[in-house]
Amino acid sequence: MPDPVREARERLLRVGLLGDVCTDSVPDLIMRSWRRSISSSIDSAALSRRYADFDADSVLLRAAAPVLDRWQHQLADTGSTLFLSDRAGSIVARRTSDSGVRRRLDSVYAAEGFDYSEDSVGTNGLGTSMVEKRAVYIEGSQHYNDALATLACAAAPVSAPDGTVVGSISVGGPIESANPLMLSVTREIGQQVEERLRAASRPQDLALAMSFMRFTNSKRPTVVMDKESLLANTPGLTYVSVDSHVLLWELLSDHDWSAGDTTRLLLPDAHTEVTARRVLDGPRDHFVLHFARRRDAAASLPRGERPVAAAGALLVEGPRGSGRATIVRELCRPGSLDEITVVPGTTALWPTVTELLTGGASVLLRRVEDVLEADAHRLSRLLADVSQLPGKLLLTASKNDAPPAVRAALDDLTPVARTRPLTPDRIPGLVSEILGRLDPGGRHTLSPAALQALVQWNWPGNIAELADTLAKVLRDADAPVLQREHLPQHLRQAQPRRRLTLLEAAERDAVVKALDAAGGNKSEAAALLGIGRTTLYRRLREFGLDDNESSL
Questions:
Q1: Model pTM?
Q2: Is residue 80 a part of any domain in this protein?
Q3: For residue range 39-98, what is the model confidence (pLDDT) as tens digits?
Q4: For 350-377, what is each residue's pLDDT tens digit?
């Protein structure tokens, strides 16, 4: 028997996006979704197997789980399945009581972790309801992919208290047992999940939402944020990430607001300017930010900020552990590099370096500040001879820490780059770079609270300590999202960046000791300190010990 819906889709595929397909058998909503699917080059004959780990303890899943469990029991005899997706379209929960239906769904990858966004599989309930921002009912051949043509589903988007779509809920099953009344059930389930999200919202979240609603339709890139949460309108999305959230919070927290509630900041990339306004409404301060690109950003970059290739000996200057060797390796990429680290008092390295340079090698001589005063003449002779050798000599040094004679030998070299100590504004970018090197598959990310802890630490070992810490966390943590709890103890209890008074410092130490003695149990810690639990929570926030990592 001919299927007019499938025929309409095949006709649309033939005529293309600009073609006109007149049919009464396909609702406008489905036709719009088909056109989006074609524009995204979705394969209608094969399902995507896109899979990703998901946060099994997100606020959305915690709010929805009891609702899904209750409705699974009520729908047990209907052959229906409940699905919950996150905002990216990945299925994060599936509830069904029928093992046969479960196997059928597994065959089309309708299971936890698989991507059912419209960009991935085309027209389907979970993905299309979020794009359309309304409840939808899709059955049979209305699905863009042929593999889903035996199924029917009703779906509705799930919104946070601020109106932002954070996921979708769906009731689906075999087409022979489905009917449009599923749409009413799905709406009811979605409303119950949203009610639990509202109940779980903190007062400061609601204050953020009220501020954000004023800028939802703004054409300017706009973000509303506090320490834990961040809301962005569509133009503002390109400016925000976990890294930028932490960096912005540090900059705004350190700012002196005594002169007024509005300020302008230039971000460290020198390309982006932020106009920030402090908002005092609600239980805690938050900020409204407007972003703008600087047209003169390129001209504003200081000379020597990025290394450039040069002939003869090249010097990268800066404090130890600040990434000097990393810059040198970038200079030599993709060529090979022989690295030799200065050991004070060792004279054998000088003939080794000369031999390598004579053979045409590129040599990195690290930590030249450790050359002894008595060996400075050897360094001077090497620098004088290097221009006559076929190889290239590269050095890292901190002139301020070098003996006078060594410093004099280096004075004739103009540094191709200068590094600086590990300041808080550099940490988010370095964390991304180090994670990219340690975890090239991108299997792990850092939670905002974990990144905040890294930013608050002083890093006496500089970049080397940061890299070693991240390598250990990746090795020990068995989770896709690295939380604050996965960090070493000293980082979880990092001092806040503002200077504490003597009384505050003593009080903070007492809180840390009480938490350690109580094994992290806040009620027991409050009893040990002789204060109420509410007072303890307030002290934890004030001292930067709050471990709240909730995220939608």
A1: 0.45
A2: yes
A3: 888 988 888 888 887 777 788 998 999 999 999 988 888 888 999 999 989 999 999 888
A4: 999 999 999 989 999 999 999 999 999 9
Whether the bond between 161 and the residue before it is cis, its omega within 30 degrees of 0, is no
Q: From the CB of residue 87, how many other CB atoms can be counted at a distance below 10 Å? A: 17
Residue 279 within any structural domain of the chain = yes
SS3 string, 178-227, reads CCCCHHHHHHHHHHHHHHHHHHHCCHHHHHHHHHHHCCCCCCCCEEEECC
pLDDT score of 349 more than 80: yes
- The residue whose two tokens read 């990429």 is 333
pLDDT digit string, tens, across residues 284-297: 778 999 998 765 43
Q: Is 304 left (phi over 0), alpha (psi -120 to 50) or beta?
A: left
Residue 424 lies in a domain: no
pLDDT of residue 123: 95
- 178 and 87 assigned to the same domain: yes
Write the pLDDT tens digit of every residue in 138-158.
Answer: 999 999 999 999 999 999 999
Rounded Cα distance, 237 and 221, in Å:
8
The beta strands (E) that lie in 71-128 are given as: 81-86, 91-95
Structure tokens at 139: 């059955």
What does the pLDDT look like over 440-489, one tens digit per residue? 877 888 887 788 788 877 776 678 788 888 989 988 887 788 888 888 87
Cβ neighbourhood burial of 287 (10 Å; 0-12, 13-18, 19+): buried
Based on the domain organization, do 485 and 524 belong to the same domain?
Answer: yes
Domain endpoint, select from 267, 298, 329: 298
CATH code at position 331: 3.40.50.300
Domain contains 451:
yes
Range of the structural domain that residue 66 is part of:
29-200
d(CA 364, CA 474): 29
Are 26 and 3 in contact by the 8 Å Cβ rule? The answer is no
Any idea what the Cα angle at residue 305 is, between residues 469 and 364, rounded to 5°?
60
Q: Does residue 324 sit in the same domain as residue 409?
A: yes
Domains of the chain: total? 4
CA distance 412 to 308: 18
Q: For residue 104, what are its two tokens?
A: 């059928």
3-class secondary-structure state, position 353:
helix
DSSP one-letter code for 485: G
Bridge partners of residue 317, in order along the sequence: 397, 418
Identify residue 108 by its one-letter amino acid code.
V
CB 247 within 8 A of CB 239: no
